[in-house]
Amino acid sequence: MQHGPAVRRRKLGAELRALRASAGLTSGEAARLVGWHQSKVSRIETGASGVKPADVRLLLDAYAVHDTQLRELLLALAGSDEGGGRHHWWHQYRGVLPPTYRDFISLESQAGAMRTLETAVVPGLLQTPEYARAVTRAAVNGLGTEPDERLDALVKVRLARQDVLRAEPPLKLSAVLDEAVLRREIGGPDVMARQLRRLMEAARLPQVRIQVLPFAAGAHIGITGPFVIFSFSSRSDLDVVVLDHLTSSLYLERKEDLQAYTEAFNALQIHALSPEDSLDYIAGIGDGA
Questions:
Q1: What pLDDT, on the 0 to 100 scale, is given for residue 119?
Q2: Is pLDDT of 246 > 70?
Q3: Are 192 and 133 in contact (CB under 8 A)?
Q4: Mean pLDDT of 133-139
Q5: What H or E segment, with its residue span, contains residue 74?
Q6: DSSP code of 266?
Q7: Cα 237 to Cα 12, 27, 40, 259, 288, distances in angstroms
Q8: Which long-range contacts (CB under 8 A, 24 or more apart) does 181-187 make?
Q9: What residue spans of 96-147 are helical by DSSP H?
Q10: Cis before residue 169, ω within 30 degrees of 0?
């Protein structure tokens, strides 16, 4: 388990190493092509050191990598905020966002698909403004009183993240929601009623799949806690699992971890209600059932 920046360095390094090998170059030959010492190429490929987007661009050119989508993804992993991909709008909030949250948003903005299990609150991408404010206030106040300006900024960030569902192409979101998410009254009855209606609206979008895991399902593998799996259209080996904690996030990248969480999510989908039945279930809770 690693923190976001380390995971991204290692993934980027592994991908650059594979691209170099595909180009038929040794690390020494690659270094000579770009005018570096061989040790720099080695450090980058092992994730031992960070790499600037400009250096990644040099290597990709040397390896004759012309796939636009792959180049954009690798540059994003290097921290690039230039050119294609989804605009790195969150940089303007650097003063209020912790590094792990910025890394999460960066991955979210570049991913092709997102699978998430939520056991306590509605996923951030599906929250109404009022619900988002209530959740954010509870979170930041739990860590100490925060000024209203910072609270406002955090809510704006959470709502701005939702643009990935309207991008072209949009992020594909699959969410399994424990029934507790729907019954926990956050922000008061009116806020919760609007939030449930928002979920029903989102469930009808072609890029969104929502399934409810009812209390009647009993014990299930998801009781260990929520998680997110990010998948990338161009390279499956860049997929990553994110586990959120109170003050930090952990990123899992090993194939064994990815397989375990993928199998867990598939099992949760089987035990959950179908998307159609989930829609009816949400409507029933909204009607006071």
A1: 95
A2: no
A3: no
A4: 90
A5: helix 68-77
A6: H
A7: 11, 22, 23, 11, 44
A8: 181/118, 181/119, 181/120, 181/121, 181/122, 182/212, 182/281, 182/282, 182/285, 183/285, 184/120, 184/121, 186/121, 186/131, 186/134, 186/135, 186/138, 187/130, 187/131, 187/133, 187/134, 187/135
A9: 99-110, 129-142
A10: yes
- CB of 221 closer than 8 Å to CB of 265: no
Residue 200's Cβ-count burial label (10 Å; 0-12, 13-18, 19+) is: middle
Would you call 197 exposed, middle or buried from its count of C-beta atoms within 10 A (0-12, 13-18, 19+)?
middle
Identify the CA nearest to 106 among candidates 131, 72, 137. Answer: 72
Q: Provide the 3-class DSSP secondary structure of residue 3.
A: coil
- Counted residue by residue, the chain has a size of 289
Closest CA to 40 of 24, 22, 58, 61: 58
pLDDT at 106: 81
Q: In the prediction, which pLDDT does 252 show?
A: 85
Tell me the two tokens of residue 264.
């867990």
Q: What is d(CA 184, CA 107) in angstroms, rounded to the nearest whole number?
A: 29
Torsion of CA 198, 201, 204, 208, to 10 degrees: -30
33-37, 76-80, 106-110, 240-244, range with greatest mean pLDDT: 33-37
> Cα(176)–Cα(268) distance, rounded to whole angstroms?
7
pLDDT tens digit string along 47-66?
A: 887 788 899 999 999 999 99
Would you state the structure tokens that stand for residue 288, as one six-digit string? 């006071």
**Residue 126 pLDDT > 80:** yes
36 CB-contact burial (10 Å; exposed 0-12 / middle 13-18 / buried 19+): middle
Residues 208, 227: Cα–Cα separation, whole Å: 17
CB count within 10 Å of CB 116 equals 20
Assign 94 a pLDDT band (cuts: 50, 70, 90).
confident
